[in-house]
Design brief:
The complex is a heterodimer of chains A (about 375) and B (about 290). Chain A contains 14 helices and four strands. Chain A has about 375 residues and is mainly alpha-helical. Chain A has a domain of about 240 residues: Orthogonal Bundle (MetI-like fold). Chain A is elongated, with a radius of gyration of 34 Å. Chain A starts with about 20 loop residues before the first helix and ends in an 8-residue tail after the last helix. Helices cover about 75% and strands about 0% of the residues of chain B. In chain B, about 50% of the residues are buried. The chains are: A mainly alpha (about 375), B mainly alpha (about 290). At the A-B interface, helix 3, helix 5, helix 6, helix 7 and helix 8 of A face helix 1, helix 3, helix 4, helix 5 and helix 6 of B.
């Protein structure tokens, strides 16, 4: 075999093969040579370490602004509610003052400096719980229908419609509630409720205006429905198909398949969706303010006027008469902030546990 | 006979199970109808009661006193746009850059998980609490209500929303794009900005529009920061009208023509929001890369 290396002649001067020399001679030669133009250009540019680092720091700071917002809200709320906290302490949330003229308990009396948040806490809890009772069955029904029973061509438009329900601002819900829902309830539903359930004392005819807890709960239920239903749909979709197929293979009807294969597996996430709906109901301001009647009293009747924590802040904040009044309102806001943070954190944890870190939708 | 009785018992049970299945289907369909009903009712009422009061006066005139004809909500519409602009200056850059961190630099780290969780929780905090924070931060030291305070309140509401949607859109950009840029020697910061963010820009813009639509309808934080104004506002340091604020004031008033104006304002608001939401749906359904420039 021919073992000699063939001679290569290349025209370009830069690519002439070097004459055969020993390794040390070659090294000495290249050390003394000028670096090529290309190499000189690349060396002169430097690397982008500084720019990369500062860019990364800027992005991190902007992301940390989320924590900054929470800290800012907490600091402002705690700072400005200190006056009310020092004046009333923890009793702010359950004290009842006795009106000297009537002997009945009063709670919120800015004129005499009596501030107790009990009617607002009661109002928030009652309206939210009643809204949940109305909304959860409906939302689960919608989610089950859209996920399992709906024909394919209908699924897109119906899902879009339920998302549209979530996008409507609460002021429009309130407007519709005042002019359409409240007269409807007043004329047709409330008399029927009083007639059938009046014996329990929960429905009395003292309040013929139609405003009150029932109207507020109905409009709240309409508002939290899309949240519960869309999140329930997400957790139901996250259940693997193998579960459904296994139950069907054992001879279940479709409803039994949904109940045992899907709802049972998704129940943690469904609980999370319900709690998220509760969180939204607790903080809902405008629609509730417009229909709940705005009276800082506690009555046994569910048809009575009342108020809620967000409603009293919306109504009285801009016209707060003195520092104590404003500080009391800010303390109510602080309580609302803490409660909604806890409820939302719990709900997100539950939903995350089921969907395993897939980003949860905002609406 | 044994076989016959168990046979009929089985058939009876099977029939009951079938009935329960049909019942469940009927209940599910009924609840869907019951849910769609208020939505349809709201839109129908808005159209019926609002369209009749929509005229040119509505869009170019400021509110008139009760009893005088020809009032409008022009200052409210312009005021809402102004508040949105101020809020975007605060909220959009911080939100987008926060989303860039979550998707590019912090992916998988504990800090990013904590930030994402906090952003989700912040999205659920009632907007009136943000209003109180902006009030204490800006209105109390300044001593007066202002459009700036209203814009800040809306801006801090936008940041978590835009952060999450930006992150989701950036996560959809395939790795190939980033690696191609880095392989060509583009610095990391340049690759993130010019390549990744630009590829996801239709999605990011629609995320911002979603945040706009949500924030444009917020009334509660503006009640005691921007306060509302019956006239044109000339500077950012005075109270400013906003569309949802005007709707609220008119809706709870006892005057009929103010009620009509409230319906008209609500119609304008809902049309804008429905347009924004439909646009968002359309663009995101087309995919991230298809719309890349």
């Amino acid at each position: 075999m021919d073992t000699t290396v063939p001679e290569i002649h290349i025209a370009h001067p830069q690519f002439q093969p070097e004459p055969s020399v020993t390794a040390e001679q070659r090294q000495a030669a290249s050390a003394a040579q000028e670096p090529s133009e290309v190499r000189r250009f690349l060396l002169s540019r430097g690397n982008s370490a500084l720019a990369d680092r500062s860019f990364q720091i800027l992005m991190t700071l902007c992301a940390l602004s989320i924590f900054g917002i929470v800290a800012l809200i907490a600091i402002e709320l705690i700072g400005n509610s200190r006056l009310a906290w020092h004046s009333f302490g923890l009793q702010f949330f359950f004290k009842a003052y006795i009106d000297p003229y009537t002997g009945l308990p009063t709670y919120w009396d800015p004129v005499n400096g009596h501030f107790s948040a009990l009617p607002f806490v009661y109002g928030t809890l009652l309206s939210s719980l009643m809204a949940l009772m109305l909304a959860v069955p409906l939302a689960l029904g919608v989610a089950v229908f859209l996920t399992e029973m709906c024909p394919n061509f209908l699924r897109g438009p119906l899902a879009f419609l339920t998302e549209l329900l979530a996008a409507i601002p609460s002021i429009i819900y309130g407007l519709w509630a005042i002019f359409v829902l409240v007269p409807l309830l007043r004329e047709h539903v409330n008399p029927w409720l009083i007639k059938i359930f009046g014996w329990s004392g929960l429905f009395s005819d003292d309040n013929p205006t139609g405003l009150g807890f029932v109207s507020a709960s109905v409009i709240l239920a309409i508002m939290i429905l899309p949240i519960i239903s869309s999140l329930t749909r997400e957790v139901m979709i996250a259940v693997p198909h193998s579960q459904r197929e296994a139950v069907l293979a054992l001879g279940a009807t479709r409803w039994e398949m949904i109940r045992m294969g899907v709802l049972r597996n998704a129940r943690i996430g469904i609980v999370g969706a319900i709690i998220l709906g509760l969180g939204r109901a607790l903080g809902e301001t405008m629609a509730v303010t417009m229909v709940i009647g705005n009276s800082p009293e506690i009555h046994r009747s569910l048809l009575a006027n009342g108020s809620s924590m967000a409603a009293v802040i919306a109504n009285e904040f801009a016209e707060a008469t003195n520092d104590l009044h404003r500080s009391a309102l800010i303390e109510i806001g602080l309580a609302l902030f803490i409660v909604t943070i806890i409820v939302n954190a719990l709900a997100r944890l539950l939903v995350w546990a089921v969907t395993r870190g897939a980003p949860a939708r905002v609406n | 006979m044994e076989a016959a009785s168990t046979g009929t018992k089985f058939q009876l049970r099977a029939r009951i199970r079938g009935l329960i299945d049909s019942g469940a289907t009927i209940l599910a369909v009924l609840s869907t109808l019951l849910v769609i009903l208020p939505l349809v009712a709201i839109f129908i009422y808005l159209l019926l009661k609002g369209a009749s009061s929509l005229n040119l006066d509505f869009f170019i005139r400021t509110p008139k006193p009760v009893g005088e004809a020809g009032g409008g909500m022009a200052n409210a519409i312009v005021g809402s746009a102004t508040l949105l602009a101020v809020a975007s200056i605060l909220g959009v850059p911080m939100g987008i850059f926060g989303g860039v961190y979550l998707a590019e630099f912090g992916r998988g780290t504990k800090l990013a998980n904590a930030i994402r969780f906090t952003a989700d929780v912040l999205n659920g905090v009632p907007s009136i609490v943000m209003g109180i924070a902006a009030y204490s931060l800006i209105v109390l030291p300044q001593g007066h209500f202002s459009a700036f305070a209203g814009g800040v309140a809306l801006g801090i509401m936008m940041i978590p929303t835009i952060c999450r949607t930006t992150e989701e859109m950036l996560l959809m950009v395939p790795h190939v794009v980033r690696e191609a840029a880095l392989g060509l020697g583009v610095p990391n910061w340049r690759s993130v900005l010019s390549i990744t963010v630009k590829t996801a820009s239709p999605g990011i813009i629609t995320g911002c529009m979603l945040a706009f639509a949500r924030v444009a309808g917020e009334t509660a934080p503006l009640l005691f920061t921007a306060l509302g104004n019956n006239f044109w506002s000339t500077t950012l340091n005075e109270p400013i009208a906003a569309l949802p604020l005007q709707i609220y004031v008119y809706a709870i008033s006892p005057y009929d023509d103010w009620h009509r104006l409230a319906w008209a304002g609500a119609l304008v608001l809902i049309v804008l929001i429905v347009l924004a939401v439909s646009l968002v749906r359309y663009v995101t359904s087309r995919g991230v890369l298809k719309g890349a420039s």
